[in-house]
Amino acid sequence: MTVQGTCDPRFSQVAEEFDRNLALRGEVGASVCVVLDGEVVVDLWGGEAAPGVPWLHDTIGHVWSCTKGATALCAHMLSARGELDLDAPVTRYWPEYGTHGKGPTLVRHLLSHQAGLPALREPLPDGAFYDWKLMADRLAGEQPFWEPGTRHGYHALTFGYLVGEVVRRVSGRSLGTFFREEVAEPLGLDFWLGLPEEHEGRVAPTIPADPPTDPPTFYVKAFTDPGSIPALLLANQGGYMTTPGESDSREAHAAEFGAVGAVTNARGLAGMYRPLSLGGGGLVTEEQVAVMGLTASAGTDAVLAVPTRFSTGFMKAADNRYLPPADSEGALLSATAFGHAGMGGSLGFCDPAARLAFGYTMNKQGIGLGVNPRGQALTDATYLSLGYRQAHGGIWYAPRD
């Protein structure tokens, strides 16, 4: 398939792996962008956005949980300004949240997937995810599945309402408005938490993953234990993930859905992380970037049932290669990197030590929730182009380390 764009010769390995993704790894349409020292060194796109429709320079798509990086950035911007204390109880900003023993929950627990609210027990009405007040009220009144702060479990769909409601309470603006006015517009990003209708024609529809012969443990649990957290998470979301095509509907794209709803491309993801790769770039302070990259929760995930690592709002490197194949997806980055993957394989991250920002988006999903071989091959090629080496634990190390 035709590949277009630009690539600095130093990063030719990235271009080669992008070609291999399209030719050999089942890629349909995709984009990849690498920014080093603030300069774009890779900006490639190719394949098809839809049958017979080429992926163009300005094609955008649903990036699923890469959205969480944008939502977390909004919270950290408020923290850097002294308006939000990550160590304060959530009830300081959201008084209604303190029911059912949630009073001691700290803001950082929301960001690090330690809040104990990865799902809701009582059935949600159709379209619930498009009703911000409904979701915030239901979460405020929900009993946690574990004592907040004592363990971590991926808040795949609730993260955006939990963190986003704090952003809304502190800033006085909706999450999508705050992100647009404070991040996307100042940086000139084609990155949307609430896509305007005039951009709908540029969206590459999501192509669901092929049915797995060996599904991840998370899905096995969801389909065999109706009372489990995975089952509640997947089944009780107002039709967003259970109604075919709903997540790519106009209503879904327009919603300010801070967990999995963003629409952008690789250039948008890399562009969002670019300032952070340079020490904050006017969005946050250098001290805040250090906080953003510090691991806050790690170990076996109470929801996904595999090892995960999170900072306050971002994924950290996690090596799951030696688990059974169905659960082997992780994120092989350097120890100083942080960002977020999206369901099916999209990825955005920065590595401040390398002054690196990276984005990858695609329309054909893989079966897992982490970085699959297509995105990992591009990440690996990026680090190899910088002279990094991969040692124990799958972590990438700079030549000087």
TrEMBL record:
It holds the Pfam family Beta-lactamase. Signal peptide: none annotated. The keyword Aminoacyl-tRNA synthetase does not apply. One of its GO terms (molecular function) is hydrolase activity. Keywords: Hydrolase. Residues 24-366 form the Beta-lactamase-related domain. This is Serine hydrolase domain-containing protein. The keyword Magnesium does not apply. InterPro entries: Beta-lactam-related (IPR001466), Beta-lactamase/esterase (IPR052907).
